[in-house]
Write a structure and sequence with these properties.
The chain is 53% helix and 11% strand. It is an alpha/beta fold. The radius of gyration is 19 Å and the shape is globular. The relative contact order is 0.10.
Length: 337
């Protein structure tokens, strides 16, 4: 067993802390809000982000990055993707030499259009960044914390490192597969959130199961097309970090991104929806980055583009649907290229 810091006490960071502490690791969970740390210490429960889950007594809590990183063999990054840069920059001076970094954040940074691995490479020393591992897959935090069966992928450019992370995280209810396609795994995890918004909008409009199946299928083709153009391997998107995560997030009742899409389809504004939420729906910010990135490299992404238009240009969901359906006809093989 090893000493581990989990940075970010949202639902996923809390669920991973729960998993690792139950396995016997010495885990410290860092939260940005000092008030949340006080509640965690007092109640042993994250009422805001993971209510109803009793946390192991061997979990420790802090909002001090130096204290969180001290003596830790592994650091798991789980802040919202748009906060990864600032949090990691604050943490970097305190990381132990040789500490293993695992990123559980899913997204593409706004402005820079960088993936999480590229952000990490800008901040950390080259050897530590090159050895970083990325955890992704179809995993709702609430179900993982309830110890329900789930599977995920640990991807690192170093196969040995991926296997080490696989062993550390795997339990009798959480099965982890190793992988070496970092780019594919992280893009699958980021872009599926945009497709979940699209599926939610479709469901909110009452368009039925056929429409949802079409969006998932064509969404997967879109993710693969953009991912391959950025250096990912096509087969990765047929696995847990691609198709698996896509199906879960586009259909599951616990999906925050799908829920945002549902409310948009039912006529609410994005401002109204966000005002009622206390957790981050990563697809909102990622849709902007993905749209800009696709335009930058010249990849056709019609679903991503329409989600962007609805979120950032005030386009009516019905108009977005019409534009998707009335595109020029082509063969499916042609549409995959």
């Amino acid at each position: 067993m090893i000493s581990i810091a989990v940075i970010g006490a949202g639902s996923w960071g809390t669920a991973l802390s729960h998993l690792l502490a139950r396995k016997g690791h010495a885990v410290t969970l860092w939260a940005y809000e000092s008030a949340l740390v006080d509640i965690l210490r007092r109640d042993g429960e994250n009422h805001t982000y993971l209510p109803g889950v009793r946390l192991p007594r061997n979990l420790f809590y802090t909002n001090n990055l130096r204290e969180a990183a001290k003596g830790k063999k592994m650091v798991v990054m789980a802040p919202p993707s748009q906060c990864l840069r600032s949090v990691l920059a604050g943490l970097a001076p305190f990381l132990e030499p040789g500490a293993l970094l695992v990123s559980a954040s899913k997204g593409i940074e706004n402005d820079t259009l960088m993936t999480m691995s590229e952000v990490i490479a800008e901040i950390l020393p080259a050897p530590m960044a090159a050895n970083a591992t990325f955890l992704s897959g179809p995993t709702f935090a609430k179900e993982v914390a309830a110890c329900l069966p789930a599977a995920a992928v640990a991807a690192s450019k170093c196969e040995e490192t991926a296997r080490r992370v696989q062993e550390i995280f795997s339990t009798d209810y959480f099965r982890v597969y190793s992988h070496t396609d970092v780019r594919g795994v992280e893009l699958g995890g980021a872009l599926k959130n945009v497709m979940a918004l699209a599926c939610g909008i479709s469901d909110g409009l009452g368009l039925g199961d056929n429409a949802r199946a079409a969006l998932i299928t064509r969404g997967l083709a879109e993710i693969c097309r953009l991912g391959v153009a950025l250096g990912a391997r096509p087969a990765t998107f047929a696995g847990l970090a691609g198709l698996g995560d896509l199906v879960l997030t586009c259909t599951g009742g616990l999906s925050r991104n799908r829920r945002v899409g549902l409310e948009l389809g039912r006529g609410k504004t994005l401002e109204e929806i966000l005002a009622a939420m206390n957790m981050v729906a990563e697809g909102i910010r990622t849709s902007l980055s993905a749209h800009q990135l696709a335009k930058k490299i010249g990849v056709e992404t019609p679903i991503i583009d329409q989600v962007y238009q609805v979120l950032y240009r005030g386009k009516a969901p019905q108009g977005a649907l019409a534009d998707l359906m009335e595109r020029s006809l082509k063969s499916e093989r042609e549409a995959e290229e």
